[in-house]
Design brief:
CATH class of one domain: Alpha Beta
CATH architecture of one domain: 3-Layer(aba) Sandwich
Radius of gyration: 20 Å
CATH topology of one domain: Rossmann fold
Strand content: 5-15%
Oligomer: single chain
Structural class: alpha/beta
Largest sheet: 4 strands, mixed
Order of helices and strands: HEHEHEHEHEHEHEHHHEEEHHHHHH
């Protein structure tokens, strides 16, 4: 799900490198007709869905020569999520990925989770559904994937804290006074990773790392005080686990999403991946910094949400999606993203989540609150 995005592309590269191990059964995309059609012609899935209903006829024509069932809209994406398969790559970006990913949880044994918002907005409810259906959730994010590997055969009771690393984004060394002049074009130019626009902007504000803190809380069932963030510009160390006896274990690798994707596709075995080996001598130096909340106020907001509970986490996620879209449209400035999220969180401190219906209700209310604060 989300086959035409950056995670989808990397997943297909790993599959193509292991043709004897995998077949692609179903694929989805938002509105990228050309790329989705290319995928269908190359990988020959049995089912394909495009979310944009207006693009459906053109897509159907592009794959008319194939023996493939096609669909569109939300119903089509949900049908793809429920299509019989062994494991699903859940790579639809944003809150819109929640419903199809939950459908996948209910219909297959392994969900490879590359959607942050599922856990940020729905948290323990999402993990409860996975447990009810005996579905394994494997994290695709490089940081959570690193922690997953480090925690194999270990109990979180023995862990002092888990540390997620962050590159610091494109503005790590930009003078603070110049942040007000940042444009969307500048914000999407990540120094290390190749990602979609929304995730790249989240990385620039470090709200992305804040979302990952909340993800880690739910994925690994740890308290907020056990979670830390460390800026590591080289993005070689992806996660660290500090044990109560003082031992610190680090997961290292080149910054290539094919590595965590290959881990999830092969789990519990290991796949062979055509990826250059890490050369530490060539890297020369690894550096680390504590995050500065003056530079990254969105990260501070995420820490507040981490401690405040699920309702505020859902509010923060919704407000961020509205704020990022407004920034992309030049309706607000870069520094206004944090302010918009803060105002929405302050307005909805009593948001309560006890079921999935509450998730959707709180999400929509937060979006309305945030949208009303965008200058006309």
């Amino acid at each position: 799900m989300g086959a035409t995005g950056s995670i989808g592309d990397s997943t297909l590269q790993v599959i193509a490198a292991n043709p004897d191990d995998f077949t692609v059964s179903a694929v989805t995309a938002g509105n990228n007709i050309e790329r989705l059609a290319e995928i269908c012609h190359r990988f020959q899935p049995k089912f394909a869905a495009i979310a944009d209903e207006a693009s459906y006829n053109d897509f159907k024509s592009a794959v008319a020569s194939l023996d493939i069932e096609t669909a569109c809209g939300e119903a089509g994406v949900l049908a793809a999520a429920a299509y019989p398969t062994d494991r699903v790559m859940a790579a639809i970006t944003g809150f819109s990925g929640l419903k199809p990913t939950i459908t996948a949880l209910q219909n297959c044994s392994i969900v490879m989770l590359a959607n942050k918002e599922c856990l940020v907005a729905a948290g323990s409810l999402f993990m409860d559904i996975a447990a009810q259906h005996n579905t394994t959730v494997l994290p695709v994010d490089s940081e959570h994937n690193a922690l997953h590997q480090l925690l194999v055969s270990k109990s979180v009771e023995d862990v002092r804290h888990l540390t997620l690393t962050a590159s610091g984004g494109p503005f790590l060394n930009l003078p603070l006074v110049q942040l007000a002049e940042v444009t969307p074009e500048m914000a999407v130019k990540h120094p290390v990773w190749s990602m979609g626009e929304k995730i790249s902007i989240d990385s620039a504000t470090m709200l992305n790392k804040g979302l990952e803190l909340i993800e880690a809380q739910h994925l690994f069932s740890v308290s907020a005080d056990k979670l830390k963030v460390l800026i590591h510009p080289q993005s070689i160390i992806h996660g660290l686990v500090t044990m109560h006896d003082g031992s610190v274990m680090a997961h290292m690798g080149t910054p290539d999403m094919q590595i965590p994707i290959a881990y999830c596709l092969g789990w519990p075995e290991r796949l062979k991946a055509d990826i250059a080996a890490l050369d530490l001598a060539a890297e020369g130096e690894l550096s680390f910094l504590a995050p500065d909340f003056n530079r990254y106020p969105c990260l501070e907001l995420a820490y507040e949400a981490l401690n405040a509970g699920q309702g505020v986490q859902t509010v923060m996620n919704a407000a961020n999606e509205i704020a990022v879209e407004a920034f992309r449209k030049a309706q607000i400035g870069f520094n206004d993203i944090a302010g918009l999220i803060r105002a929405t969180m302050d307005k909805m401190t009593d948001a309560d989540i006890s079921c999935l219906a509450d998730v959707y209700e709180v999400d929509q209310a937060a979006r309305r609150q945030a949208f009303d604060r965008i200058p006309l």
